[in-house]
Amino acid sequence: MEVLWDKVQSAYLRANKPLLYGLAVDDAHNYHVFDQNSSNPGRGWVMVLANDLSPESLIEAMEQGDFYATTGVTLSSIDFDGKNFMWR
User: Taking the CA of residue 63 as centre, how many other CA atoms within 13 Å lie in the half-sphere pointing to its CB?
Assistant: First the structure.
């Protein structure tokens, strides 16, 4: 999937289209059996860097790309020098 994602992003950039952001969301189908082989809720979410928790602030931050999708990783900072990402 990572190769496919890179190809889609490259095609969008070459066509002068806006970035296509990826999100992590629950695609839950199993609510009564919880195990690693079931599609349970709570396994994917979005971390947003926003001024506050108001819907307006969250949407504005996400439209600016100030978010990342995760299945559990928590980052304290993300930096980009124009070529490389660095995170902590």
Answer: 6
Residue 54 CB neighbour total at 10 angstroms: 10
> If you ran DSSP here, which 8-state letter would residue 4 be given?
H
- Residues 6 or more apart whose Cβ sits within 8 Å of residue 32: none
Considering the entire predicted model, what is its pTM?
A: 0.63
Question: How do strand 67-70 and strand 85-87 relate by DSSP bridges?
Answer: unpaired
Place of tokens 């490259």: 10
Collapsing DSSP to helix, strand or coil, 55 comes out as helix
The label of the residue with tokens 């199993």 reads 30
| CA Rg value for the chain | 16
pLDDT in tens, 22-62: 777 767 777 888 888 887 787 788 899 999 999 999 999 99
